[in-house]
Specification:
globular, 18 helices, mainly alpha, single chain
Length: about 425
């Protein structure tokens, strides 16, 4: 009777095994097919790799700056930059096939040739060096190892390159900007630890030229954002840069509008967009490298040079509604800087403290700007960014804002 009872069980097991056999066979066939496809892809990759290496070198040669670049008109330069960007996309696609190590080796060949030529007593070919730097910048999307010796050596060599002509310094700065995230991760992994002070000093020198300053300011922002936790030894340099930069750009015009002479010895040639890059970079760096116990006081202190000129200027405003004039217009770029400052913050208590100090100039400015939609929008943007950065820490200011803003809306009828 036991054997009769077991027969259905045996039959069920046999049926299960028969059902499993086709699925196992299909799985083995799929795995074999996948392995075959991978092997075929690898074979094709190796077969076409030499052709892509030739393409890489061909594209590289097409990206060299033309002989008459410095005398080109702005429209011609813009057209050339678009042309170069297109070739850069082709270069990046080819490098993805060739591989990171071999691509770097091929693209850095012109720089190695320049080094050999200079060692032999020949003149420094800056266009050839600039070509190599730009090509390497174009392939920054590739997944480079954090211990990559070629990249480490290249970044270490950047500060030793000549700062003139400014086109070379500009491309050097943009290369550093493109690899700032890689640099931050490499430092965290224990590489390139001594590079940051030298690279920052290189960027500070590049800021002195109007052409290279555009790339240098962008690189300062990106390096501060990606490497901020490692920039404690650079804080003194950064603070000196910060205070000097605040006197540049629109600051001279704003000071002149209220009868204050610009600080002597500080460059006012820097474009206002570059000033914003430096402000954002320094705020991000301070937020990352200062300990939590010092962060509120550090950021509040950092905001004082921004708030001081605004407080001094708004004290000269008459309180009459809608009497905006050239004095307010000259101060608006300084209010925009405060917007950038708030937009770079992540510390709510510090943002709330700074917003409370900024409310006085904002209140007067909003009253003065009635009827000027552009001025109202820019002033309201400061307030929006300040409230967003303050978060819940903005609570103590809510009664003041809820009392003031509805009445101002009734006066100006501006949606912002």
């Amino acid at each position: 009777s036991n054997s009769l009872a077991e027969r259905p069980l045996h039959r069920h097991r046999d049926e299960q095994q028969q059902q499993q056999q086709p699925s196992l066979q299909n799985g083995l066939a799929a795995a074999t097919a996948t392995a075959g496809q991978a092997a075929e892809q690898q074979r094709q990759h190796e077969f076409f790799k030499p052709a892509f290496e030739k393409l890489l070198c061909l594209v590289r040669s097409r990206m060299r700056l033309p002989s008459g670049y410095t005398s080109m008109r702005s429209r011609e330069r813009a057209e050339w930059r678009r042309h170069r960007q297109t070739w850069g996309e082709v270069l990046n696609d080819a490098a993805a096939v060739v591989g990171e190590q071999r691509s770097l080796q091929l693209l850095l060949q012109p720089l190695a040739e320049v080094s050999v030529a200079v060692a032999g007593g020949k003149e420094f070919d800056w266009k050839k060096a600039e070509l190599a730097l730009h090509c390497v910048r174009s392939i920054n999307d590739l997944n480079f190892a954090l211990s990559d010796p070629q990249l480490q050596q290249l970044l270490a060599a950047l500060p030793s390159l000549p700062h003139q002509p400014p086109q070379l310094a500009y491309t050097s700065a943009l290369l550093l900007s493109a690899y700032s995230e890689w640099l931050g991760q490499a430092i965290t992994a224990g590489h390139c630890r001594d590079l940051l002070p030298r690279l920052l000093n290189m960027l500070l020198v590049s800021l002195n030229d109007p052409y290279s300053a555009i790339g240098a300011a962008q690189a300062i922002k990106d390096v501060c954002e990606c490497c901020g936790t490692h920039m404690g030894p650079c804080l003194e340099q950064l603070m000196g840069l910060y205070h000097k930069t605040l006197e540049a750009g629109a600051a001279a015009k704003a000071a002149a509008a209220v009868g204050v002479s610009p600080v002597q010895g500080n460059s006012t040639e820097l474009h206002e967009d570059d000033v914003h890059c430096v402000i954002k970079g320094v705020v991000l760096c301070i937020s990352r490298c200062l300990p939590d116990t010092q962060l509120v006081s550090g950021l509040t202190t950092l905001a004082r040079p921004l708030l001081g000129p605004l407080m001094a200027a708004t004290q000269q405003f008459t309180p009459s509604l809608g009497s905006g004039d050239a004095v307010l217009a000259a101060q608006l770029p300084l209010f925009d800087r405060l917007t950038t400052f708030f937009g770079s913050m992540r510390q709510q208590e510090a943002a709330a403290s700074i917003l409370q100090q900024a409310w006085g100039p904002l209140d007067i400015g909003l009253q003065r700007a009635a009827g000027d939609r552009d001025a109202l929008e820019r002033l309201c943007r400061v307030l929006r960014y300040g409230i967003k950065a303050s978060g819940k820490a903005c609570g103590p200011m809510l009664p003041i804002l809820l009392e003031a803003l509805p009445s101002k809306f009734q006066q100006v009828r501006h949606a912002a």
